[in-house]
Amino acid sequence: MKAHARKRLPVGILAALLLSGILSGCASPTISGTAMARPGAAAPSAGGSSVTSPPAATSLPPPATTSSPPASACASLISSMDVRAQVAQLVVPGVDAGNPAAAVSLVKSQQIGGIFVGGNNTTLLQNGALNAVQAAAKIPVSVAVDEEGGRVQRIDDLDGSLPSARELAATKTPDEVRALGVQRGQQLRARGVTVDYAPDADVSDEPADAVIGDRSYSPDPAKVRAYAMAFANGLRQSGVTPVLKHFPGHGHGSGDSHKGTVTTPPLDRLRQVDLQPYRNIAEYGKVEVMVGHLDVPGLTDGVPASISPAAYQLLRGEYHFTGPVITDDLGGMKAITDQYSLPDAVLKALQSGADEALFSSGSGDVGQVLDRLTRAVADGDLPADRVAASVQRVLTSKGVCG
């Protein structure tokens, strides 16, 4: 399905876009995840890491600087976009990393805000393949992976393996973990990645091979916060946007949301333990947050947090988070797919307060998703001002406007 043509930009906005690099197709750090554990990843030696030096960047642009166009430029840009172009900025479909041409075609036809590169194939992450994806975009595309270390890695075959979060916290200081985050961020950035769905901010004492397990730094909330902040700071220093996950806390959940419903302890208990890493969240600096498919007694009342307005209100209100919020995978987890079609799940997430809807599968359905969202805005089921606010967060996170 062909994407609707975007409106011609006013001269003043055109100049602002030229200054920010939009019309040249350059990539900037951006947002937002799912974490699909990769079984059988090689275990690094205790206390060490086999991470190699980052590859030399080809024609990728440098990370965005701290300066950005005036806030009015963001509002003017959004007002120049039709509804379909706006909602397209709020979806992040997964792409086949073994088929770069398909990723380019998807971005060119649908002008989506971001893509997620999952799985074990790395073709799209080599030889500057992502340059063609950015060249197909009128507005820079966020390129996300879930690079945590341990069981959840994407570039270990290319750039060496990172230890799991639990091993890092047991063998290294926060400063050393920050340095590893810098190095990994440089490697990701050189390959064209702008967002990492990491660090995992879950608090867990589960066995290492459990759904969260060794993906958690520690059962101690203060230690989780210290190490998650260190890794996030390292990524950001290298121009990669970190994403804290899985709000409001998966570490003591009842199971795996890939397989079905997951229930957490009651909200009062989460506040005492699992939510502690999200306190004073502004101290992390520029980050994004991923909301999990978690049923929280006393908060979501049987509904996954990713499609529950109460969960987003908790994050925005009690925890004072003002940055972009992304869902966990809406297309590949039975906690959602057993109940909703992909277009309906995406709509419910955005209605509930998400800024971005992630779906690792269903890239062939992007046109249907955008049709559903466009109709919802026209019918008033998805308020236009709510869409505009999310688009502004997304564009600001990508460095397109401020």
Order of helices and strands: HHHEHEHEHHHEHEEHEEHEHHEHH
Summing up helix and strand content along with how strands pair, one would put the structural category as: alpha/beta
Radius of gyration: 19 Å
* Major sheet: 8 strands, parallel
**Numbering strands along the chain, what is their spatial order in the largest sheet?**
9-7-5-4-3-2-1-10
Count every helix, treating DSSP H or I runs of 4 or more residues as helices. Answer: 15
Quick one: overall form?
A: globular
In terms of DSSP E residues, the strand content is 5-15%
- The helix content is 25-40%
Q: Concise description?
A:
The protein is an alpha/beta fold.
Structure explained in plain terms:
The protein is α/β, with parallel strands linked by helices. The protein has 15 helices and ten strands. The protein has helices at 11-20, 71-79, 83-88, 100-110, 129-135, 156-159, 165-171, 174-190, 221-237, 267-272, 309-316, 334-337, 342-352, 366-379, 384-397; strands at 91-95, 114-117, 142-145, 195-196, 241-247, 262-263, 288-291, 294-295, 325-327, 357-359. The strands form two sheets. It has an eight-stranded parallel sheet. A two-stranded parallel sheet has the order 6-8. Strand 4, helix 9 and strand 5 (241-247) form a beta-alpha-beta unit. Helix 4 (100-110) runs parallel beside helix 5 (129-135), helix 8 runs parallel beside helix 9 and helix 13 packs across helix 14 (366-379). The longest helix has 17 residues, at 174-190. The two termini are 31 Å apart.
